[in-house]
């Protein structure tokens, strides 16, 4: 696609990356890789190169006239797979990266609900989301990493330690890394237009979608679980704010839905 540049959305999981991808895809200058599912995950293959990426991520059925500014890939597992960073940097020299984060407490709960609904989790939230039962938020018993794309479905706590996940991306990509906050994208038009301006496209051409890939399991989660999660993430907030050089919008402790 002459003139188009590569754009990658690496996650994070259950942070609204699908919503973000659909929002960007609604812009006439941004073409998202098809099909939406399964995700391309091109650079999980250590042998993948730029030709593989362009072949698999350039939409074939959009009727594009060659005027696209960006060709985009959304592969959520990238954010927690630091080995892909060097591959992306080497193969896509003019790439830009947009990562999305959300309130880590709500993200952990959404992850647990998603895993429960899909038969990947049978523990109640009081156990699955308790830091004492999942030391350091890492994989736990019966999570062998053999889920599709080698994405471990029960790393509920680790995925909310955003500063640890984002730091290697920031170190490599610098100003080419754009980190957006889901709560702001959903409720503030200025957040959406700012992102589009950073990508150099008209800020009025994209339209936010409705609910996308939302958890359908609405099992209540107690305030006690939420309070323990908030306490767990408390020491991780300042490093994230320092990395992003901004304050974050979610409360402390996080209120009920």
Automatic annotation (TrEMBL):
Q: Which domain of life is it from?
A: Bacteria
Sorted alphabetically, which SUPFAM superfamilies does this protein's record hold? P-loop containing nucleoside triphosphate hydrolases (SSF52540)
Give the start-end ranges of region Disordered. 128-155
Q: Which GO terms describe its molecular function?
A: sulfotransferase activity
Write down the InterPro entries for this protein, in alphabetical order: NST/OST, P-loop_NTPase
Q: Which UniProt keywords apply?
A: Transferase
- Tell whether Nuclease is among the UniProt keywords: no
Which protein is depicted? Answer: Sulfotransferase domain-containing protein
What organism is recorded for this protein?
Candidatus Neomicrothrix parvicella RN1
């Amino acid at each position: 696609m002459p003139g188009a540049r590569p754009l990658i959305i690496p996650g994070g999981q259950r942070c609204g990356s699908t919503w973000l991808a659909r929002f960007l895809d609604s812009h006439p200058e941004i073409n998202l890789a098809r099909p939406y599912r399964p995700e391309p995950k091109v650079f999980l293959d250590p042998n993948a190169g730029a030709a593989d990426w362009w072949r698999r991520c350039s939409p074939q059925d959009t009727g594009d006239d060659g005027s696209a500014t960006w060709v985009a890939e959304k592969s959520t597992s990238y954010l927690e797979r630091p080995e892909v960073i060097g591959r992306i940097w080497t193969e896509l020299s003019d790439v830009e990266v947009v990562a999305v984060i959300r309130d880590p407490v709500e993200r952990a709960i959404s992850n647990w609900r998603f895993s429960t609904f899909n038969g990947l989790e049978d523990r109640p939230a009081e156990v699955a989301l308790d830091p004492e039962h999942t030391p350091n938020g890492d994989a736990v018993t019966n999570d062998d990493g053999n889920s599709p794309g080698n994405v471990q479905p029960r790393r509920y706590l680790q995925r909310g330690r955003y500063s640890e996940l984002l730091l290697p991306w920031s170190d490599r990509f610098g100003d080419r890394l754009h980190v957006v906050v889901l709560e702001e994208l959903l409720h503030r038009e200025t957040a959406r237009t700012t992102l589009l301006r950073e990508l150099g496209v008209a800020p009025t051409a994209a339209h936010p979608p409705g609910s996308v890939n939302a958890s359908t399991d609405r099992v209540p989660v107690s305030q006690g679980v939420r309070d323990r999660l908030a306490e767990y993430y408390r020491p991780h907030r300042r490093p994230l704010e320092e990395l992003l050089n901004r304050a974050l919008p979610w409360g402390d402790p996080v209120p009920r839905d």
